[in-house]
Amino acid sequence: MGNLIVDGKRTDGRGLLDLRPLKLEAGTIKNAAGSSYIEHGKNKIYVAVYGPKDSHRYGTSMEKAVIRCRYHMSPFSTDERKSPAPSRREIEISKVIRDALESSLILDEFPKTLLDIYVEVLQSDGGSRSASITAASVALADAGIPMKDLVEAVAVGKVDGTLVVDLSDKEDKEGEVDLPIAFLLNENMITLLQMDGKMTVEEFKEAVNMAKEAAMKIKEKQKEALGKKYFEKVDEK
Ligand code: ADP
To answer: Buried-most residue among 58, 72, 93, 113 (CB within 10 A)?
Structure first.
């Protein structure tokens, strides 16, 4: 403890509330119904959405579209060799991404269908689950799936006893608390909340507020990415 924040600056030069560089693009995979690409810090992630497609297979619902999600880290996404077999962590993250997005979507318009979300991590950094959620929501909007609002996610946490926004990989691993959160801002809802570590109730409340401010900034990037695909092309003509 004691070397992650020096004179109010973090190891990568950021202030306590600064996000890492964030780049988002919509419509990056032509075969998919909707797609996106995100660079958040050193994360590089593609998301492709297929469906809703009719299905009579076991697991479909008469009431709504059923979402399936696969989060996958490519074997070259980390400096350690990663087994190609799905790890426990990948299975967990696939589920939390699915759950974080489901409540944003209006799925009862598509009974007896499946909606597949593929998340492919090309390069992995801290907060890959949050970046995946932010990007997947853009891909779902790009696929034209009706939604209440976009979902955006960020990991806040505590390092050297101080609350910070958007943990880097080093802060995630060496800090005291990692708290990934996803927001459905228009509905005033939190759709993902995980916490690794301990903080006081007061710190927790402040951390959630800091994450919400960050989510508002991320939402602007999501809207820009979608706007770029759908509006700029029209303007150019
Ligand atoms: P998140 O990516 O959402 O922060 P974790 O906290 O579980 O998820 O992971 C922290 C970081 O650990 C990841 O960003 C990734 O860079 C690294 N990591 C995860 N799995 C592996 C692995 N199998 N090999 C090497 N590094 C990994």
So the answer is: 93
Partner residues linked to 199 by β-bridges: none
Closest CA to 142 of 27, 14, 9, 224: 27
Residue with CA closest to ligand 1 atom 9 = 126
How far is the centre of ligand 1, averaged over its atoms, from the C-alpha of 125 (Å)?
7
Half-sphere exposure of 180 (CA within 13 A, CB side): 21
- Kindly state the tokens that stand for 220: 């602007």
DSSP H helical ranges for 75-142: 88-102, 128-142
Could you tell me which CATH class the domain 21-236 is placed in? alpha beta
Max distance between CA atoms of the chain, in angstroms, equals 60
Condensed to tens digits (0 to 9), the pLDDT of residues 73-99 reads 999 999 887 777 889 999 999 999 999
